[in-house]
Amino acid sequence: RMNGNCAGGTGAFIDQMAIILGVDVDELNRLALAAKQIYPIASRCGVFCKTDIQNLIAKNASREDIAASIFHAVAVQTVITLAHGYEIKSPVLFCGGPLTFIPALRKAFMDYLSLEDKDVILPEQGELLPALGTALAEVEDERIEQLPAIIQWLQTDHQPVNTASGLQPIFDTAEAYREWRERISRHGVKKAELEEGVQDVFIGIDSGSTTTKIVVLDEDSNLLYSFYKNNGGNPIQTVVEGLTRLKDECERKGAVLRIKGSCSTGYGEDLIKAAFQLHSGIIETVAHYMAAQHLDKQVSFILDIGGQDMKAIFVNSGVIDRIEINEACSSGCGSFIETFAKSLGFTPSEFAVRACSSSRPCDLGTRCTVFMNSKVKQVLREGATVDDIAAGLAYSVVKNCLYKVLKLKDVSVLGKHIVVQGGTMRSDAIVRAIEVLTGAEVSRYDCPELMGAFGCALYAMAHQGEETDLSNMLAQAVYTTKSQNCKGCENQCLIQVYRFENGRKYYSGNRCEKVFSNGGASAVKGENAYLYKRKLLFDRQPSTVSKPRLVIGIPRMLNMFEEYPFWHTLFTACGMEVRLSDASNYVNYERNACMVMSDNICFP
User: Fold this and answer.
1) Measuring CA to CA, how many Å separate 411 from each of 180, 205, 323, 422, 583?
2) For the segment 557-581, what is each residue's pLDDT rounded down to a tens digit?
3) Which residues is 418 bridged to in the sheet?
4) Is the pLDDT of residue 157 over 70?
């Protein structure tokens, strides 16, 4: 058996996770061997796994535990993908590069499969096992060749590389690129300087999944200050850094800021609002719409591509008409491009420049990060340059958005005033790829990565609150944290509870808001309706028959959460004993997920 569509949990996945932690695979192995705890990590998707890792970093989980959790996730994903209803029994042969060279990965497999050393076969040079099999295979057309002749043949007798699938260049010539840069740079945000004296300002904070953006506007909507940085899994500390820099700059220039409105949005909207006692918080789509509409009153379509999500906003006569966002898959988002750029030794900005120089972009498709990694290696072997790969990835991002997320069939629905936003749109290659594929001109302002925060600041201007200052905002962000397990269901989510000096609380790590909610209503305590429902369903009188005719086992799952009272009553009335399975838990999930017969993306 082989893996199906998903390549999560393969060697390329491990390489990407090492890059995210900033270590090589050997160091990742050393860290994992010193771990004391395992955390649940998504292993199907490199982008989602990156989020889990950043969340663990924010919770002060040790790098050792994170490394071990990565290998554990690989083991679980591999077994689930390959077993499909079969029990894996000893002896087990470990082969291939990752299992040969990474002892921590072998340990993860042995722990998950409950194997001991005597149950495992680890051959010498296990990474060469397929090549050994090839050498031992009987070949009908057998020829005896001398080694020098084989080397000569490999060096000279190459199949011609198929270049027919090359896409249209991002730019035909360097002159075309220069002219395009002149046109796209006509759109800019009005800027002003921090000045000595008192200034009334409005602050917008976009706390994204991978980056934090801060914008400060004056009363005329001029940009006074901006901050943009990767949050490294700690959004509060990143905002503190951004506001501290603003405070230092104000002190140097003698500026005194009166903050008359503040607003947050993004992945960490509620957390940042609670931490810094901001006046308001809004959803990202509204923030991006307000920014785009402020800069182009006739905007008809807004495309925002962030670190892990993409949002398309259709506007009709100044009103949001339709919103589309990506669902489970994050291929084509900012982290997708960043991961590839780093794996090839470039920053995202350098990668974008290389893409604009390509003469024959590679057609890499629109699949996920790990599969794209295989495709990139294939075209490299076929002689493709880094420029061609970078341009091909730019096309992949746009195709994924237009044809998978939007399912676009008619370009005219986008209208004539298309605005692109988000950090990913800092790439000239991606913006130009949109124009090439749609045949339409787009507008990009000179700071697309700040548009979410810019929209927040505009909202803060329209919804002013009690006046405050930077010192007071920074003083609010003192907090303590503690971890606890949610008892709301069998998932037993590990909840991180933030308690701030201002008396506010924030919960992270919860997969739902059934018990731990960051909404205002969560402060009101009431009866646990879910516990009451569970008692109504499952707390039933057992059969009084001393010698039941049959014993019926019923699993506590799926439709039994609705129908159990009926079946229990029916079987009990028929003189049978009904036995209900215990409540499930995460350990049971991992132990038995390999029994699922199909490769199911949705299994929890």
Assistant:
1) 21, 33, 16, 21, 51
2) 888 989 999 999 999 999 899 999 9
3) 301, 442
4) no
Alpha-carbon dihedral 281, 283, 286, 291, rounded to 10 degrees: 70
* pLDDT higher than 70, residue 533: yes
Closest residue by Cα to residue 281 from 522, 507, 521, 520: 520
Helices (H), 93-215: 97-101, 103-113, 129-136, 147-156, 174-184
Burial class from Cβ neighbours inside 10 Å (0-12, 13-18, 19+) for residue 8 reads buried
CATH superfamily of 197-297+453-476: ATPase, nucleotide binding domain (3.30.420.40)
CA 458/CA 352 separation, integer angstroms = 30
CB 276 within 8 Å of CB 239: yes
pLDDT exceeds 70 at position 45: no
**Are 170 and 436 within 8 A, CB to CB?**
yes
Residue 505's pLDDT is: 81
Question: Which long-range contacts (C-beta less than 8 Å, at least 24 apart) are formed by 223-230?
Answer: 223/189, 223/190, 223/191, 223/192, 223/447, 223/454, 224/191, 224/192, 224/193, 224/194, 224/199, 225/194, 225/249, 226/447, 226/450, 226/453, 228/423, 228/449, 228/450
Contact assessment for residue 265 and residue 206, using Cβ atoms and an 8 Å cutoff: yes
Q: What is the DSSP letter of 118?
A: G
Residue 426: CB atoms within 10 Å = 18
Query: Under CATH, which architecture does the 301-449 domain have?
Result: 2-Layer Sandwich (3.30)
- Lowest mean pLDDT segment, chosen from 153-162, 445-454, 564-573: 153-162
Q: Would you tell me the crossing angle of helices 63-83 and 11-21 to the nearest 10 degrees?
A: 160
Assess contact for 348 and 211: CB atoms under 8 A.
no
Beta strand pairing call for 197-207 and 211-217? antiparallel
Residue 563 has a pLDDT of 93
Q: How many residues does the chain have?
A: 604
Full-model pTM = 0.73
Q: Picking from 505-514, 519-528, 568-577, which range would have the lowest pLDDT averaged per residue?
A: 519-528
Secondary structure letter of residue 307 according to DSSP:
S
Q: CB under 8 Å to 116, separation ≥6 — which residues?
A: 110
> Counting runs of H as helices and runs of E as strands, what totals does the chain give?
22, 17
Q: Which of 257-261, 393-397, 514-518 has the highest average model confidence (pLDDT)?
A: 257-261
pLDDT in tens, 2-15: 766 555 667 777 88
CATH 3.30.420.40 spans which residues of the chain? 11-130, 197-297+453-476, 301-449
Look at domain 11-130 and name its CATH class.
alpha beta
Determine the pLDDT at residue 521: 45
DSSP 191: B
How far is it, in rounded angstroms, from Cα 396 to Cα 89?
42
CA–CA distance from 507 to each of 408, 504, 512, 527 (Å)? Answer: 38, 10, 11, 20
Q: Would you say 333 and 427 are in contact if contact means Cβ atoms under 8 Å apart?
A: no
Q: ω before 91 within 30° of 0 (cis)? A: yes
